[in-house]
Design brief:
single chain, 393 residues, alpha+beta, eight-stranded mixed beta sheet, six-stranded mixed beta sheet
Length: 393
């Protein structure tokens, strides 16, 4: 097979890149090691920045997100037993976020790609990347007992933290930065109405909690647990009891509980790989960076990478110039490190660390009080939460 851009990974970033390139007349093939059903079964984030919504619109796949997504103009910070609202819409000149599950984003992109008859190879085994440091890169994989090869101009590595793309880069050509946090998030997905129409971020002496949602009838809740905790130790009843203990009286009164559809513990880490380009291989999304989920930046950073990369390819094929591709890594990393900073700061502010102690708890409460009563501080939080704008090439 021959294509212009071979995309590794059929998660939302790879599929979004494929749709954006197709809309610009750039041929692409997506290769995914898992089945389509497996990809759709992943339970992931659900808060979309305006930049992400704009990219979905550009790709022609925003109809359901606009119809079924829940626009949010603010978030609530809970500390010392009381909630304080951050009005993001007012503080950012009218920007907002949209709550719409990553699974649904992936489903919309899959269906759009299938409707266009674009080539997607699922269940591709032993995927390997070759000659991306030269002029004629290739992607090789096995399927149905045969070995297949794709010749291409470029490779886009959108296959996540554990994918083959970053692993294919020679160790001396890449630098890794990582911070591992000493706790995880125990999360429950349940078909119950949300406790509040906006997200509640709670800082308590028992640890962090988050009240989120996927729709008006499906909620996603989290509580901070030690990093060594096992999900098997938590019954549904124990989870709901612990969440209730971390909420304010009004939220406790309105909390509706029910059987969990999914329950898991996610470890938290910050991770960046530099650079994000190696010859004709470009990394995007979790293949290049991970953020703790506190700031809701994971999917949105991946979408921003894809926005930059699609524009770089469009400039390249239209103008026959490498200048935009040459700027891809630097432009992405400027935005990535700002999102890493915000996610680290928000995580540090809201969680109980092993060495926080009473003094650390008081410092957190003082900063939260400052956020609740300082327009300047609240504006900084709001503009980072709704998402920083994309720079132009």
């Amino acid at each position: 097979m021959r294509t212009q851009v071979a995309i590794i990974g059929a998660g939302p970033s790879g599929l979004l890149l494929g749709q954006l390139l197709h809309a610009a007349g750039i041929d692409n093939i997506v290769v995914e090691r898992q089945s389509g059903d497996y990809v759709l079964g992943r339970i992931r984030a659900g808060v979309l920045e305006q930049v992400t919504m704009d990219l979905l619109a550009q790709a022609g796949v925003d109809a359901r997100a606009k119809a079924e997504g829940l626009p949010h103009d603010g978030i609530e910070l809970l500390f010392k037993g009381a909630r304080h609202r951050i009005d993001m819409h007012a503080l950012t000149g009218g920007k907002r976020v949209t709550v719409y599950g990553q699974t649904e984003v992936t489903r919309d992109l899959m269906e759009a790609r299938a409707a266009k008859g674009l080539t997607t190879v699922y269940s591709a085994a032993n995927v390997s990347l070759h000659d991306f440091d030269g002029q004629h890169p290739r992607v090789r994989y096995e399927k149905d007992g045969a070995t297949h090869e794709i010749e291409c101009d470029y490779i886009a590595g959108c296959d996540g933290y554990h994918g083959v793309s970053r692993a294919s880069v020679p160790p001396g050509a890449i630098r890794l930065y990582e911070k591992v946090y000493p706790f995880g998030w125990l999360g429950v997905l349940a078909d119950v109405p949300p406790v509040s129409h906006e997200l509640i971020y709670a800082n308590t002496s028992r640890g962090f909690a988050l009240c989120s949602m996927r729709s008006a009838t499906r909620s996603r809740y989290y509580v901070q647990v030690p990093v060594e905790e096992k999900v098997e130790r938590w019954s549904d009843e124990a989870f709901w009891d612990e969440l209730r203990a971390r909420l304010d009286p009004e939220a406790r009164e309105h909390l509706v509980t029910g059987p969990s559809l999914e329950k898991s513990i996610a470890p938290l880490r910050s991770f960046v790989a530099e650079p994000m380009r190696f010859g004709r291989l470009f990394l995007a999304g979790d293949a290049a960076h991970i953020v703790p989920p506190t700031g809701a930046k994971g999917l949105n950073l991946a979408a921003a990478d894809v926005g930059y990369l699609s524009q770089a390819f469009i400039h390249h094929y239209r103008d026959h110039s490498p200048s935009a591709l040459d700027r891809y890594s630097d432009l992405c990393l400027r935005r990535v490190w700002k999102a890493e900073r915000f996610s680290w700061w928000f995580t540090s502010l809201m969680h109980r660390f092993p060495d926080t102690g009473e003094f650390g708890q008081k410092i957190q409460e003082a900063e939260l009080d400052y956020l609740a009563h300082s327009q300047a501080a609240a504006t900084s939080l709001a503009e980072n939460y709704v998402g920083l704008p994309l720079e132009s090439f």
